[in-house]
Amino acid sequence: MSADLRTMRYVLVCLLSLTFNSFAFVLDKQNPYSQFRKWNVGLNGTLELEFKTDQPNGLLLYTDDGGTYDFFELKLVNGALRLRYNLGGGAQIITVGSNLNDGHWHKVQVARRDEHTSLTVDGIVQRKTSRGKEYVFGKFNTNSDVFVGGLPSSYNSKLTTLALPSVIFEPKFRGSVRNLVYSDLPGQPPRRQELRHSRDLKSTRTGNASGDACERRDPCQHGGVCISTDDGPICECRDGDYEGAFCERDKAPSEATFRGAEFLSYDLTQTGGEPIVSTQDVISLYFKTRQPNGLLFYTGHEADYLNLAVRDGGLSLTMGLGNGKQEMHIKPSKTRFDDHQWHKLTVRRKIQEITPFTSFCRVSAVVDDVYSEHSHVAGSFTMLASSRAHVGGSLNARALPGARVHTNFIGCLKKVEFSADTLRLNLIDLARTGSKLITVTGRLEYACTATDSADPVTFTTRDAHLILPKWEAVKTGTISFKFRTNEPNGLILFNMGAKPPRVGCTADLFAVEILNGYIYVHMDLGSGGVRVRASRRRVDDSHWHEFLLRRTGRDGRVTVDGANAEFKTPGESNQLELDGQLYVGGLGQEYSAARTPPALWTAALRQGFVGCIRDLVLNGKPQDLTAYARQQDSASVRPACHVLMKQCVSSPCQNGAGCSEGWNRALCDCSTTNYGGPTCGRESPTIYLNGSQHLTAALGPEHVTQTEELLLRFRTTKAGLLVRTATEGSADRIELAVAAGRVRASVRLGDREKRLPTLNDDCNLLAGTNVADDKWHTVRFSRRASNLKLQVDGAQPVRGTLSETILGKASTLEITTIHLGGLYHPEEEIQITSTLPNFVGYLQKFVFNGVKYIDLARTLGVGSSNENNHIYDTSNIIFNGKFVKPDSLNVYKSVTFKSKHTYVGLPLLKAYANTYLDFYFRTTEMDGLLFYNGGKKQDFIAVELVNGHIHCVFNLGDGVVTMKDKLKNFLNDNRWHTVSIRRPTPKIHTMQVDDDLEMHTTSSNLMLELDSVLYVGGVPKDMYTSLPVGVISRQGFEGCMSSLDLPGESSSLIEDAVVPSSSLVSGCEGPTKCTHNTCANKGVCVQQWNTYVCDCELTSFTGPTCYDESIAYEFGPGRGIMTFTFAPSAVADTETDRVAVGFVTTKSDAVILRIESSNTQDYMQMEIIRGNLFMVYNVGDGDHPLGDETARVDDGAYHVARFTRNGSRAALQIDSYAVIIRHPQGGQQSTVFNSMARITIGGGAGGARSFSGVLAGLAVNGARPLDRAAAADPALALRGDVRRAHALDPDLNRMQQTPPSGYGGPGVLDELVYSGAGSGCRDDDEDACVLPDAGSGDDLITPVYVPSTRRPPKMHKGDTSGKLMKPCDDEDCIEGSGAGGEDIITEPEHPMTSSGVSSTHSMTSPTAAISTEHERERTSPTEARATADTRTTPLDHDNIHAATRDTATTPDRTTPTEVFTDRTHTSPQFTPSIPKHTDSTHYTENNIPDYEDHHPEKETRTPTFEMEEERIPSRGHADYNGYEHEITTKWYHPKTTDNRVVPPESEFFATIVGIVASVLIAIILIVIIVLKLVFKLDTSYKVTEDKNYQQSASAALLGNQAHSSYQTGASSGPSNGNGGAVRGLQPLPLGRTAPAQPVKRDGIKEWYV
């Protein structure tokens, strides 16, 4: 009876639950959790509930045994429901479902019976079995209540009462729960549970669970999430940086100072709790330190660990997981992390299960979001676990697993967060709030108290400087600092007052400089200056030195390293009135040297300080130089001070230049070479003067100096004036001349009193012998007050001294103008007479007091003959000579960007006040991003290739500026081109591309504030969408780059990259030169003695040029499997393996193929896991997986996978993505795959995880199993749903990556070449191209076509035969079709860059094109036309791809009408017969419908397309993907079931038409022969081989010489799909001989009849 009563009670409970089904309780921030009675789970029990939410993560339910072992935790993890439980034998995890945060109700059941536990979500069940012998869940009396949505906050102080302590830190569930049903008493059936504390929660009807308070008003700020409650909206602050009711307040930073004895830790094993487990975790923190070594973070469980530390100024990561270990070290070139600046570190780990026994853990570490390393570990693990952790150190850092440093961290840490799936711990916050989870060792200070004022900064170049407020020292003041350097000259401090109010006074001045290795102090209070040598010993010894200055009135004392020097300023003034700013480290180029006093020699010579400065204190107030550096020139003034290795050891100086050690830089002396630049690698600008030419530079009326330095190289055969300074109203001058075979230097200082020259005031020096020998000579001259020095070439310098009579009172020299090569008066524009003749010869490297005047003239375009170059503000330089173009370019440090996804990062570009960027490039691509450096706020600079031209785009804060070259030729012609970007003055920006110079003048903002790194060759793919307005590029640069010069250095893109790339290779790997037809689809061209062979094994294509589609098989949903068994004689051991396959699939989890051994466990398996491709191989030492998570392959597109193995090392590449390389470390590695015997295709072992899609071109070590299957080889067995696929859907043949080009793998590119095109005239002006002769217009012009790389063909729905018919023309279409029927598909394939003439793409393979080329040389005019038709005949009727340009379609084999009979036209026209479709449909490539059989009426029209059209910019209508025209692909499908191409009546009609046409052709031939005999017409035709073959997809169609014998028409024609211009053509007239032209071109032959 009791059993019946219990049954009735259970039924009643169920009925009541159904009755109240519409009621639920809501969990939100106001009601964070609910508490229910204990669950009587015992040995057998069930628990059911329903929930709905829109949050992907949250704790749904928790209960345990009171803190011992057993627990049940139910939570949402990224939209999936995860059950973690422990019944005493160890924790188990079950995960079910996905996207459960969809806002709908989901039903959950947890059921257990003895050791078996199951989780059911919406009918989907997963089960697991517990280990151990005892399966009873705790004890009912001591078990905890059931908590839904979260736990009470009181558990924070009693973590030991929780079996899973980490549960208290799980995010709370936000949503609604209903129908919670379980048994709450022993022996009782399950029943619907009521809230234990109903006052803490609200019950509401389901329809009103969410409310609309947030919809009416959302008060949350800074990304806070609004939650509706009965009392109004409340905010959940998701961003940890803000707090408050509305997330409106900045949260106090969770930071702490560690001094070596303090650290944080937790150890869950001490409380008996379970470890934190997850499938992915993230460790993120910020650190700041001056120490090169120190432990940052450690976490682990048992033998697994993760150890993070600062090591040697870099970042070290070591990890052990399962039986795999991994180590990474991030240490960028010329960048250190121990610079006492904040650095962000993020480490991510994620586990993917590869096989039931092997998992794959991918780990990545990123510093400052720029410097990154990625790796992976494979082993027998399933989860990441953390039972203990250390932050900042431990009691014994050396003893921690994976330790690479043995010291604790010293510095500051903030925002130390550890996230494991849904769990998120801010460890410093937990320690500060006193959480029982965290143990604090030592006296930790929760603030970063380390001061930055003592931090050093490094001035890396002579132009680097900082600007501080003026030094307030009117009556008294002190200033102190420390410095170190090894360079003997440099200005350290400079502060000047206002201009003196009256004559006879000087401006107040304070300055400190290093001159010849000694410290000098300059002080002027307005009544006269004093210069004091403050150091007794040289201070350029790389050691730290201390400087201290105290001043009171006119008296002062300076102390250097304890040695005192006292001084007293002259005159009566006793106040130092400084009005300007305090310059630290130098003045920079923007500060005029004329404003500095003559006695400050380093300022006159523009020599800034290069070295380190720290502890700058003004009047007792420390100055934070690092903060000023961050706000100003953060690229040239770097934090910290480190002594690097010797720089000259690597011999950076080129072309025989000398090298000397500077401060962390190599100083190259280029004075004795013809080269310049940082490492003497770039050709120096050279000018030629003919005796009446000169270069004159105006310095200004107040330019007075006490020191001068002059450098000049010359080459002459005559005596003449080299250089002379002049001043109006004074006889002051310096003169250098070639006289009597020697170099003579003369110095004259006039009488300052009378402004008249005195007699015999010249001081002459002579040096060198036989210098007029037409060879290059270098002359150096310097003056230091009274000391003179003259040196020619490498001979001993000649010295002299000026007498006091000559020297004058102040030993100063006034200079207004500098004359190079001759004298010139700017006002009268006449030559000034001189006793010396003007110079005749070559000059280069003219440098006067640090200014390179010849280089400056070239940068400003002075003397350029290009009328398009608009020169701004260059009146201070006059030059009427000419620049000499170098014979060749000196290419150095060249690299190849092998794909458009390749990029590297260099340190931040030094372009704050001036820009210096030089490089060479070579490419065949039209577009690509070359350089990009982002900045603060709106500032940035970018250099890109757009439509074959260079764009320089920048923003200084007042708007985007774009400078474009105006060269007439495209730059993607596979030749080296030079680019120089300069900022010669603060407001003038210049860009020179080859010989073209473009300039721009800015207005207000003068400083370019950049940040991050300088990206070269492209940027990360997710950055393209966020590039600033004005930057057009959406892909990287593909081609060669070399000779990169940046301020003070010639950077190597491989050795100096802080963001390296494995796809960047050294040297310039241009398009293959096997033949002009390179291998397609990344086939390898192997050069032989008189031919070449294309290796297509790793392409998934076949044929002589890797151009033909391989045999493909389709694997249906019915689990098709193909097994290939090697013959016994073919079973072999392999040390190297090569596997390639092309595939199309939409399945995210499948095995593509598996290769197995006959007698060992060796295997290789290619599989798709979560849409990513992986290759797992085992050659006896365990599973080694490698894969690329950045490229998804389940997108229904055609992909090619290439795998190679050499011993234990292996590499995998998907399409054109970077190569993934695996090199197992440690232990004895196996290298041989034993007894390779079987290949399973389409699934794994036993057909598990079957593949669905299409496989093509499978090659395994040279064997092609799919080919053997097609040949019915008995070694290959097929079973299940697999059949041969004759074609692929054209939507699927679009590769996910960049199409093949000449770089990174040869490929045959699409180029349509017309005879006569490529004369070299590409001018946009219609009148710029003049034809040699208009011609008669009767000439026959034969189009020559170079076929494109073929794609896998289309598989059409409804095609029962599985075959594609060839595209038809008028002769073989069905009745009334005219051009192949109604089925027309528009498929953009090669974008057009300007409007194009409708033309036909031939169907000929590359070999066919070669074979017919020579036949056309021997054909008559009629035969030439027939040959053209023959060339376009398809060779493979099963794999045909026809395409036409523009919107009109052309029959595939119909050659446009090319015989022009109207002699009145001067430009030819194409008039092809094009059928007009009255009922045709055009579709885009992503919307291809099923075709129906219908035969609409059609009519034929003959449009005329003019070749003379304006070039249209390539960025056109959006419907054409940014291009003006699309390519139309036309397919013909069979209309009958008997596979007849046309019906019999059409064949009969075509036969009649053919007979009539043959008769007409015979009559025309007879007439032509008769006319020739009667009129003796001298018919001639010419074969020209002077056209350059353009293989590039972005080059112009033919060469760019402007003087070809066949030139284009008067107007620009359209461009082909690759950017090449197709011009209006003027054919060679009959009976006329073309004049010989000096053209040298090889490649394409053209026929003129």
Describe the structure.
This protein has 1649 residues and is mostly beta strands. A hairpin with a 6-residue loop joins strand 56 (720-726) and strand 57 (733-739). The radius of gyration is 41 Å and the shape is globular. The strands form 25 sheets. Strands 1, 3, 8, 9, 10, 12, 13 and 14 form an 8-stranded antiparallel β-sheet that branches. 7% of the residues lie in helices and 37% in strands.
Topology:
Elements: H1 2-19, E1 23-27, E2 34-36, E3 44-52, E4 58-64, E5 71-77, E6 80-86, E7 91-96, E8 106-113, E9 116-121, E10 124-129, E11 146-148, E12 175-182, E13 191-192, E14 203-205, H2 213-216, E15 225-229, E16 232-236, E17 242-243, E18 249-250, E19 255-259, E20 263-267, E21 276-278, E22 280-288, E23 294-301, E24 304-311, E25 314-321, E26 324-330, E27 343-355, E28 358-367, E29 371-379, E30 384-386, E31 388-391, E32 410-420, E33 423-426, H3 427-432, E34 439-441, E35 457-459, E36 466-468, E37 476-484, E38 490-496, E39 509-515, E40 518-524, E41 529-533, E42 545-552, E43 555-560, E44 563-568, E45 582-584, H4 601-604, E46 611-618, E47 621-622, H5 625-631, E48 637-639, E49 658-661, E50 666-669, E51 675-676, E52 682-683, E53 686-690, E54 695-705, E55 707-716, E56 720-726, E57 733-739, E58 742-748, E59 763-767, E60 777-784, E61 787-792, E62 798-801, H6 804-807, E63 813-820, E64 824-825, E65 830-831, E66 840-848, E67 851-852, H7 853-860, E68 877-879, E69 882-884, E70 895-897, E71 904-906, E72 916-922, E73 928-934, ...
Antiparallel strand pairs: 1-12, 1-14, 2-11, 3-8, 3-12, 4-5, 4-11, 5-6, 6-7, 8-9, 9-10, 12-13, 15-16, 17-18, 19-32, 20-31, 20-34, 21-30, 22-27, 22-32, 23-24, 23-31, 24-25, 25-26, 27-28, 28-29, 32-33, 35-46, 35-48, 36-45, 37-42, 37-46, 38-39, 38-45, 39-40, 40-41, 42-43, 43-44, 46-47, 49-50, ...
